[in-house]
Amino acid sequence: MPLAILIVLLVSLSFMVSVHSQALTQTKGDNNLQASEQDQNKAPNKKPTQGIATGNVSELAKGADKWALIIGISDYAGTVNDLNYCDDDAQDFYNALVNIYDWKPSHIIVLINEQATEAAIMSAIDVLSTREQAGDEVVFFYSGHGSLSTYDIDSDNERKDECIIPYECQQSYFIWDGELKMEFSTFESNRIMFFFDSCYAGGMTDLVAPGRLILMACGENQLSIESSTWENGQFTYYFADQGMLNHKADLNSDQKVTFEEAFDYAKAHCRSQTPTASDSFACDMLP
Fold first, then answer.
1. What is the arithmetic mean of pLDDT over 197-224?
2. pTM value?
């Protein structure tokens, strides 16, 4: 094989190569992380205290609606950049909304794998914008690859920009934080939750605005991991699977798991990454 071709192949494969230890562990960015199953199953880093949950639950007003866009991409275009459990993340979160919180399936747009193209994601956001109204609840959930740029790629005057990566997995299709900010700038709702289980997710704070809760799997310079130990991304596993579906995040034992409680539970249990939140919602948002 010519040397030039070999170099290109090695560079491509380095974007997402599975690492095998005692459990399959891989990141949702451009690096690999060695983590054993024994390490992943240790006790939580800290107790879920002094988190973002206030205990003051805000339920949806009578007559208001709930709308969601759920995106999970494991099977990217080609084979080099595939992940394993992002589609499971999306399914678990969908199951939590429908089966635990009685959301209407007709009010949830789900884009899995090849469905989650750049055009489809942007179109789905536009659909939500035509349906939601002031007082409604809106949820945007993303699990998949994330990346960053060290120059102002979306002209928002930030030196570093973060993005989510649609199915095409090419830079010209990346959706940058500034673009998402513009897309959601016309929404009337002051009750919006954004969820990002992707590498460098902690930088998705362009979306900060009153009434918004932004939950991010890791810091701005960190990687987000998934593993066969959880059959999920680590953050989504503790947030949706354990926290919501298995009700383990009911930290105040009131039989209601809010998004804030689920985040606090997930942050307390995550290892090798530090979930972060930007909470501009006055109380605790009940899905």
1. 96
2. 0.85
